[in-house]
Amino acid sequence: MYVLSWSFADAQLLFDKMPQRNVVSYNVLISAYSRSPHDAHVAFGLFDRLENEGLSPNGLTSTSLLQASAGLENLVMGCSLHGQCVKMGFLNNVRVQTSLLGMYSNRGDVECAKRAFCSMIDKDAIAWNSIISGYVKNGKLMESPELFHTMLREKVNPTRFTYSLVLNACAKLEGYDGGKLVHAQVLLLGTYIDLPLQNALLDMYCSCGDTHTAYKVFLRIENPDLVTWNIIIDEYTFAAVISGTSGVPSCDYGKPLHAQTEKTGHSKSVYIGSTLISMYVNNDDYISSQKIFSSFLHKDAVLWTEDCNLDSYTLSSALSACADLVTLRQGEMIHLACSHCGLVDKCRFFWNYMKENGLKPGSKHYSCMISLLSRFGLWEEAEKMIIESPFVDDYVESWRAILSSCIRSGNVGVGICAAENILNVNAEDNGASVLLMKVYAAAGIWDDVSETRRKMRKLMVEKEPGLSWIEVRNDVHVFCSGDQSHGQNGDVRPELSKLMGNFIPIVDEEVT
């Protein structure tokens, strides 16, 4: 009674007053102390008393002492107990074997735990849970799912705790496919999903970046606890706040959030990582974005398909971070990376690979291929792809990519054809007219430049003026050339004149 209510002092007092004690009474008290992390050492004192009174310990005594040894993290004492179990013939006891396994696992000695596990003749679910738990705790994450599959082949029914352990390993590995298979098996076998298992599922989906499914799992939790809220809030909050900083023309807000994710360990999440990459790229900090990408050993599709305008430096760095391009997951936006890096053959390889494997190219796959082909002068192939593309809304932008490529190549004929296709859709597309003028200018055909400009004026088409901005004390000020609408224009002009007065022009003379 006293032990069950954790009144150890009263239990000890009653035990000491007993006129005659046997191994059963000793086992009750030793077992109680072994479960308390603060009183585990008392269990060994009682064991000494037991032997001094001439009593012989049994398997339950050894089981409790091994549990106490694991709590004290005293491997020497645990090894001594192991030897005593061998000497007294307790190794045939499944509970003793499982306790040995748990003791070695908790101490971080995975090899001894594995040997103890392999020596067991009858391995029940508790033994399997113990070895899987030891592997997960000690970072042997890749082996944990393998042990789980072996457990299934041995026809041992997993418990809810087994599923939670494997899902925890999948979350740390960001093994989305493996986690989904575990979830599917839980549903298939009709296993009752309790709160710890729901939290494990939630953590796995959040860690793997599938926040949509994570949210659906969260909605099914009737009584979420603190662990539940920490999981769902952490992933969503960090991602949402970091995404909110992408529109600000400075990383001053995003960098502290990045530091916080490093501190809390959330930077290892692919979902958070892809959000950080997007934030840095939108702020032109390509070095930081490349570092984050390279830090992910397993390049997830979320990272490759992140909807952000990655430039050539970031994407070439992303490609170089991959040891083997063929190992990238199907459906990743590899075409965008190849396009910017000018890797025509690789881009074609992945394009054909998708089609051969029944994967339907998306809008961005088509736009990247068209951009690549046109930049390398393969205009006929690019035009054929525009005709084949089922994405009608991308028609104008596809021709615009071809038109832009003609500026560098100087191919006036293709440029005129591309501009005509754009203007046939929208005769007032000033962007197409401006690009066509640049094509004429690059080829030195100035008469056509003037003619195009005249047509633009006739249609009252004006090029949208470029804007400049400056950030002062967390306020962003935007202005264009000749702009006098700023509220502090009266203060700005005199200061600008003062600066110009001190300006020393550089002349074409050798500076000595």
Automatic annotation (TrEMBL):
Keyword check for Repeat: yes
A Gene Ontology BP annotation from the UniProt entry: plant organ development
Source taxon at top rank: Eukaryota
Swiss-Prot/TrEMBL PPR repeat ranges: 22-57, 124-158
InterPro entries xref list: E_motif, PPR_At4g14850-like_plant, PPR_rpt, TPR-like_helical_dom_sf
Keywords carried by this UniProt record: Repeat
The keyword Repeat appears for this protein: yes
Gene Ontology MF terms: RNA binding
NCBIfam families attached to this UniProt entry: PPR (TIGR00756)
PANTHER family assigned: PENTATRICOPEPTIDE REPEAT-CONTAINING PROTEIN (PTHR47926), TETRATRICOPEPTIDE-LIKE HELICAL DOMAIN-CONTAINING PROTEIN-RELATED (PTHR47926:SF342)
Protein name: Pentatricopeptide repeat-containing protein
Taxonomic lineage from the root: Eukaryota, Viridiplantae, Streptophyta, Embryophyta, Tracheophyta
